[in-house]
Amino acid sequence: MISPCFTQQVELLNVQVFPCRQAMGESSASDAALHLRQLLTQQQQVRIIFAAAPSQNEFLAALSQAKNIDWSRVVAFHMDEYIGLPSDSAARFSHYLKQHLFDVVCPGEVHLIPSSGEPEQLCRDYARLLQQAPIDMVCLGIGENGHLAFNDPPVADFNDPYVMKIVELDATCRQQQVNDGCFPSLAAVPTHALTLTIPTLMAAGRLFCMVPGENKRQAIADTLHYPKSVSCPATALRTHPACTLYTDIDGFGEVPHV
């Protein structure tokens, strides 16, 4: 396992920088797998929320190959989903997570956000599932605009009263989906989505945040140094007592010489 080439503590947030995104993915997955194994020795089920994005590819690939995990005792959720895509669309986040993790490790329970139904009712139903017991782990990323899940700056709320809500996606967020190769054009990206709120994500016991790549460099800098504000929703991570941000040199920029 490759060690980080630089570590930093920013308020409560632990930051680990790796020489490449493959090393970042393998190390973050090793840490998440270790924590998951520990939880499974202490409780019957472990409840985890996963992000769906290309930034998670290396992490999920390594996690899916981790040994000695009883996935039958894992209850899996995901954190956001587009409104309006057909159920068989390859751009749906449920499709991504099934392909990259759920169909590989077969968790005991997988709660996918439905592709059809009245959006407000879908939010209420999914919120009830999430609130049945505490969330133990969240595996997430940060958007180019600093979003967490689909809590873009215009709709983010650090004191959101909702567990899950309907949001309109801002232009930067939608363009990122094109940049990531998920859609052929901006016009093809849905304008609205369902997302877990920031308080829902922050209530989890342990957060693992994987953010590789040069396109995320400004978002990482803002996360670490911008005043805590919904102008950069990811600044909330600095207040969580057990969150690690994993990135690579491309995402972090030049590391200080020691």
Features:
Rossmann fold; alpha/beta; 31% helix; 8 helices; Glucosamine6P_isomerase; 258 residues
Question: Can you describe this structure?
Answer:
Keywords: Hydrolase. This is Glucosamine-6-phosphate deaminase. InterPro entries: Glc/Gal-6P_isomerase (IPR006148), Glucosamine6P_isomerase (IPR004547), NagB/RpiA_transferase-like (IPR037171). Its EC number is 3.5.99.6. GO terms for molecular function: glucosamine-6-phosphate deaminase activity; identical protein binding. This protein has 258 residues and is α/β, with parallel strands linked by helices. It has a single domain (14-38, 46-64, 73-247), classed as Rossmann fold (3-Layer(aba) Sandwich). The protein is built from eight helices and eleven strands. The strands form two sheets. The chain has an eight-stranded mixed β-sheet with strand order 1-2-11-10-7-3-4-6, with helices on both faces. A three-stranded antiparallel β-sheet has the order 5-9-8. It is globular and about 55 Å long.
